[in-house]
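Hi everyone,

Forwarding the result from last night's run.
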Amino acid sequence: MKVDYPKIIQGGMGVAISDWRLARTVSMLGQLGVVSGVALEIVMIRRLQDGDVGGHVRRALQAFPFPDMARRALEKFYIAGGKADGRPYATIPLHKMVGPRKLHELCILGNFVEVFLARDGHDHDVGINYLEKIQLPHLPSIYGAMLAGAAYVIMGAGIPTMIPGVLDGLSRHEPVSYGISIAGSRPGDDTLARFVPRDFMEGDHAPLARPRFLPIIASNVLAVTMLRRSNGTVDGFVIEGPTAGGHNAPPRGTLRVNERDEPLYGDKDVVDLEKIRELGLPFWVAGGCGSAEKLREALAAGGAGIQVGTAFALCDESGLAEEYRRDLLREAAAGIARVVTDRRASPTGFPFKVAQLDGGLSEENTYLSRTRICDLGYLREVYRKDDGKYGYRCASEPITTYVAKGGTESDTTGRKCICNALVANAGHPQIRNDGAVEKSLLTTGDDLAEIARFIPPGQVSYSARNVIDTLLAIDT
């Protein structure tokens, strides 16, 4: 059966930057809208604590197929009129190998809500994007997205060979497991996270549609690996280059840096699209692809199209807080916008693209003045203790705590709390007991400098439609 693939996949960016409003708009315009699947349980409960402006979260929860689960979340987190100014958001447990039931419920609900709202009012496909390295929430999160009818699951930042089998199992409400990367694990250790859908279901339900799976890859070797080692069907690829925003794959070979300590990429980091085409699956090219010319090139190389992030991240419909979007657009239009590939910022060790903006964690003084804390924990590393039990550490947590857990002090240098910063980017910053407000750390692709191409004459901002119309002008 011939599939009518989209020419444009909207990137799944940050925490709620690619939110339901943006994804819904892009899908209704005939391309593939994608929501970010990162920390959606946090996003949902903070929206509820802010009073659920517009009633959208409550509307989605009313449609959730397990009403008792939805009721528990509303009773716990919804605050009519919103929490008082200056009051911290309520917290929830951090993810672990065996997470508490209430946390898994919030993962299911948060992912359902975002996909449901993105699909509401139209019959076009909607996708969801996850990061493989944020492994512990995968299983309940994907289940929630599938309950809402996600048509695509897109995943990068790792080698997600077990996801196809997870999608197969969850579509039948069957028990599934996922291998967790554990530092210091030994042969015979149990490294699987497990999830049993029927432990959460209320009543019986028909099988779910199995989403198409698109891994995000940065090399031909990884493409072949995904096809050979995956435990189910891989439906295509997103080929991402090092100019894309967020986490980038490290350079292949010996690390070289420029005068700003940014990693340098070379010929080994260029994917041979002809070899990708020979694999016989659709593919989309990503990273610096926000132009009609790049779309033409991708199609000419045999691709289905392009994935575009930065252009959508700064459009009117994105979830990026208005003040940050406005400032970035102003700097881009003035030709002074700057993006640095910071190889130290992320506790994962992956290079991370950071837009330089006053007042955020990209400023050294702002970063140094923040009290280190790890209370969201999505980028924590699971490690094996001497007694065989598992612990959790993050290079961005307090240095003495990290070292006490077996971490190396030098690994903490320059590490930033990306988890809290990305939630702040979307307008939901945590407020500390001393009144301090978590700061932003904005990530965009290298093509931020070219973003003014989407702004119509006489205006200071642009819409998702402006982006799509510009990208599809491939015959001009």
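The chain has 16 helices and 15 strands.

Cheers,
N.
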